[in-house]
Specification:
homodimer; 461 residues; alpha+beta; Uridine Diphospho-n-acetylenolpyruvylglucosamine Reductase, domain 3; Alpha-Beta Plaits; 7-stranded antiparallel sheet; 5-stranded antiparallel sheet; 16 strands; 34% helix; FAD-bd_PCMH_sub2 (chains A, B); flavoprotein (chains A, B); FAD-binding oxidoreductase (chains A, B); FAD-linked_Oxase-like_C (chains A, B)
Chain lengths: 461, 461
C-alpha cells in the first residue's frame, strides 16, 4: 500500500481546506513547547462537523494519525505533529452558535478563543468564569481537552465544572451528543466527563455548551510580600477564613525580577522572597474592613512584610500583571516547565522537600516558582543557561523531573495539574496513575479509537 | 462444573460475614422498588477493602454475579438481586476515616448514611451540601453510584461536584485510588468521573473523599400557591433573578392531598392547583426585603395566588414536610415512578405536552406531580388503583413510559434525572442515549468488568 497523501484527502473531500506549504506545516505543527520539530503531513481546516467526521473516517481507512489542534498554546506538546500526522485545526469553527437565557448556557464551536467566550457571556450580563493568561489565543476546545484550570479555580473550579454539553466526533468517526445541557441526567456513564481532559485521544470536541453564571460582586486586588515560604499557606488559611477569595496566586523574587525586566511596574519597595496576588469579593465596607483586618493580623503574626491594596482598576491590572506577565517574561529563556499539584494540606511539607531537591539538583540554574498555590498547584520553570545546549539542558531537567515525580508519588500529587500530559509528561505518568489505572485508560482508548488514529503517542507512557 | 455456593465463598474467605437465611435474602435482595422477588445466592458483608477484593476475585473465578448494595433506598432496582446473585453489602463499612481541615475534605467508608455525613461535617463547622429525603437510610456509596441529586442541586450541584477522591474495586478485583483529593489533576482520563453514576456496573466504591464547604448564610423558607402551570417557571425566573435560591421545589394539589392525609399540617387556606416550596439565603434585611418584593411582584403579575413565609425553624420544617413527605405518603399506593428531566428552558413546553399525554393515557388513574423544577427535574408518580392487579398496572405504566420516552427524546431530555437506570429504566435508555453512546458504554463496561460479574442486567437495554 502506498502512503496516503494530502492529495488523496483532497480527492475524498474536495471542499475541505487543506494547507501543505512549509510555513503552514511549521506553524500548525507545534504548540508553545519548542522541543519538537514540526513535520505534519498536512493541515486540514474543516468548517463543519460533517467535514470533521469525513476527515476522521478517511484517517481510519488509511491509518493516518490525526492531531486535533486549537489555539496551540499548550505547554505539554499535546498538539505537536512531528511524525507525519494530519493536523486537524478547528480554528475556522470559531463561532457562537447560541445563547439560552433560561438555562444560562452559551453554545460555541470549539475554535473560539476563551476571550471571545468571555465577551459573548458579558453581552448577556453573565460570565464564563474560567480564566488564564492565554485567554486571547487559546481555544475552548483545547481548554476542554486539558480540563484547563487557571487563576479562578479556587472560586469557580476547573473547566469541567462549566461544560453542560459536548458534541464530540469519536475516534471511529461517530458523532456523540453528550448530555445536551441537562443539569440532572443519571442515565448511564457520563462520557462527557470522560472526554474532558482526554487531550484529543478519545474524540474531537466539535461543539460545546458552556454554563454561565452571575458576575461576581465587585472585588479588590491586593499584593502581599511575605518573609518566607512557611508564611505562604498560613496567609492563605488566614485570608480564606475571612474573605471570599477569587484568586490566590504566588510567585518568588526571581519571578518578579523577570517580569519587571519585561516592563512591568514595581508595586512595593524593598526585596522580599515571596509575593502573593490575591483577589477577593468586596461588595461593601464590611468586606473591605475584613480584608484590612486580615492583612493586619498577618502583619502582626509576622506572616506579611508589606502589601498594597489596588485603589483603581488600573492599579489592580498592574498588580495582576506582576503575576500574569511571568510566563511571557520567561519565554526568551526557553524554560523547562513543571506543572505539579498536591493536596492543599500537603503543600507546606511538599514545598520544603522540593526546595531542597531543586537547590541540590540545579545549583547553577535559575529556577522560577509561581502558581495557583490555593489549589495546591505549583509552576516551576527552569531557565536554560545560555551556555548550555538545548539537548543537554532538557536531559538535565528530565533527570530532575524524575526525582520530582518520585516525590510527587510519595505525596500523592500529580505530575500535571492543568497542562495535561501530552508528550512532555508521558514518561512520568506512572508517578500519578497506577499501572492498573493506565491499563484501564488504554482499554478505554481502544473503545473510543479502535484504530489508534487520534493523537497517537500522546498521554500514554 | 457445579454451581458455586455460599459455602465455597466461606471456605475461601473464612472471616467474611455471610448471611443465607431466607429473611436476610429477602431483606438484602431488594431496594425501594417492589416489583421483583428477591432471590440472591447469599449476602456478603465485608468489613475491609481486602474482603471486597476477595469477594470480587472469587466471583470472577466462579462466574458469580455480584450486586453491590448500600442503603437500598434506590427507586430504579439498581440494587435488586432477583437471579441468584451474591449481594455485596457495604453496610458494615460505615465509618468516618478522616477529616482534613486544610483541604476541607471528609474521608468515609461507602456504607455511611448521608445523614451521618452531614453530622460529621457539622462537627467541623462545615457542610456536605447534597441532601434529600432518604438521608437517614441511603448510603454515600449509593449516592455516588447514582450521582444523587436532591433538593439543593440548584445551589450546589449533584453528588459528582463533591467527590474529591474515590477508592474503587474494579470488576477485575483491582483496587483503584482515583484522584486522591487533588483539586487540579490533568493527568490522563478522569476515571473517578466515569465511576460516579455507573450504578455498580464498573466498580464498587470502597472509600470516598468528600469535599465540604462553608455553611450557607441563614435562609428563609416560603410556600407559594400558584394559579396554573404556566406560572411555575415564570415565578422561578422571577425569584432566581432577585434571590440566592437554595431550593425551588414544586408539587400539585394531588400531592398535597396525600401528604395532608399522611399527617402533615395545612399551611395555606383554599385550594390551589400548584405549590412551590422555596428556600433562599436571607442573611440580612435587604435579602428579606428582596424576597417580599419578589413575592409581591408575583402576586401583582397574577403568578402567585397566596403564600406564607416561615416565621420559625419549626414552621420552616413544617413547610418542607409538605414537599419531603410526598414520597412516603404515596408509598401505600404502590406508585410507578417516572424521574425525568429536560433543559430548564424546555420545561414549559414539555409540561404542556406531557400533561395532555398523561390526561389522555391515565384517564382514571391518579397521577402525582412534584419535583426539582428549578433543575428541569420532574417526578411523576402514578398511583395504582386498588382494583387493578400489580402486573396489569405496571404493563399500563410501561406503555405510557414508552410514550413519555418518545417525548423526552424529541425534547432532548433524560429518562432518569437522578434515580439511575437500574432495572426499571433500562428498556428506555435508548430514548436518552444514542446507539453509538450505548455501544461505547458497553465497550467501557468490558474494560472495567471483563467477565461481566458486576451488577449484570442493570443499566443496559
Amino acid at each position: 500500500m502506498t502512503q496516503p497523501t494530502a492529495a488523496d484527502l483532497a480527492l475524498r473531500l474536495p471542499s475541505l481546506r487543506l494547507l501543505t506549504d512549509a510555513g503552514d506545516l511549521e506553524h500548525y505543527g507545534r504548540d508553545w513547547t519548542r522541543r519538537w520539530t514540526p513535520a505534519p503531513l498536512a493541515i486540514a481546516l474543516p468548517s463543519s462537523i460533517e467535514e470533521v467526521q469525513g476527515v476522521v473516517r478517511w484517517a481510519n481507512e488509511h491509518g493516518v494519525a490525526v492531531v486535533p489542534s486549537g489555539g496551540r498554546t499548550g505547554l505539554s506538546g499535546g498538539a505537536v505533529a512531528a511524525h507525519g500526522e494530519l493536523v486537524l485545526s478547528l480554528e475556522r469553527m470559531n463561532r457562537v452558535l447560541g445563547f439560552d437565557a433560561v438555562d444560562r448556557t452559551l453554545t460555541v464551536q470549539p475554535g473560539i478563543a476563551l476571550e471571545a467566550v468571555h465577551a459573548a457571556a458579558r453581552e448577556h450580563d453573565l460570565v464564563y468564569p474560567v480564566d488564564f493568561a492565554a485567554r486571547g489565543s487559546c481555544s475552548i476546545g483545547g481548554n476542554i481537552a486539558t480540563n484547563a484550570g487557571g487563576i479562578r479555580v479556587i472560586r469557580y473550579g476547573n473547566t469541567r465544572e462549566w461544560i453542560a454539553g459536548l458534541k464530540v466526533v469519536a475516534g471511529n468517526g461517530e458523532l456523540l451528543d453528550l448530555n445536551r445541557g441537562l443539569i440532572k441526567n443519571s442515565s448511564g456513564y457520563d462520557l462527557r466527563q470522560l472526554m474532558i481532559g482526554s487531550e484529543g485521544t478519545l474524540g474531537i470536541v466539535v461543539e460545546a455548551t458552556l454554563r454561565l453564571t452571575d458576575p461576581p460582586p465587585s472585588s479588590q486586588v491586593m499584593l502581599l510580600a511575605l518573609p518566607d515560604m512557611d508564611a505562604l499557606m498560613r496567609v492563605f488559611a488566614l485570608f480564606r477564613a475571612q474573605l471570599s477569595l477569587q484568586a490566590f496566586e504566588f510567585f518568588t523574587d526571581v519571578a518578579l525580577k523577570h517580569v519587571l525586566e519585561h516592563g512591568a511596574q514595581r508595586a512595593l519597595d524593598g526585596d522580599h522572597p515571596y509575593y502573593v496576588v490575591t483577589e477577593f469579593e468586596a461588595p461593601d465596607e464590611r468586606a473591605q474592613e475584613a480584608a484590612l483586618a486580615a492583612f493586619e493580623q498577618g502583619v502582626e503574626q509576622g506572616l506579611i512584610s508589606d502589601g498594597v491594596l489596588a485603589q483603581s482598576d488600573a492599579q489592580a491590572a498592574a498588580l495582576w500583571r506582576l503575576r500574569e506577565g511571568i510566563t511571557e517574561s520567561l519565554a526568551p529563556h526557553k524554560p523547562y516547565k513543571n506543572d505539579i499539584s498536591v493536596r492543599i494540606g500537603a503543600v507546606p511539607a511538599f514545598l520544603h522537600e522540593i526546595q531542597s531537591l531543586l537547590a541540590r539538583e540545579y545549583p547553577h540554574i535559575e529556577v522560577v516558582w509561581f502558581g495557583h498555590i490555593g489549589d495546591g498547584n505549583l509552576h516551576i520553570n527552569v531557565l536554560k543557561p545560555e551556555s548550555l545546549a538545548d539537548a543537554d539542558f532538557i536531559a538535565q531537567c528530565e533527570h530532575v523531573t524524575k526525582l520530582l515525580a518520585a516525590t510527587l508519588q510519595r505525596q500523592g500529587g500529580s505530575i500535571s495539574a492543568e497542562h495535561g500530559i501530552g508528550l512532555v509528561k508521558r514518561p512520568y505518568l506512572e508517578s500519578t496513575r497506577s499501572a492498573a489505572e493506565i491499563a484501564l485508560m488504554r482499554g478505554v482508548k481502544g473503545v473510543f479509537d479502535p484504530n489508534g488514529i487520534l493523537n497517537p503517542g500522546k498521554v500514554f507512557p
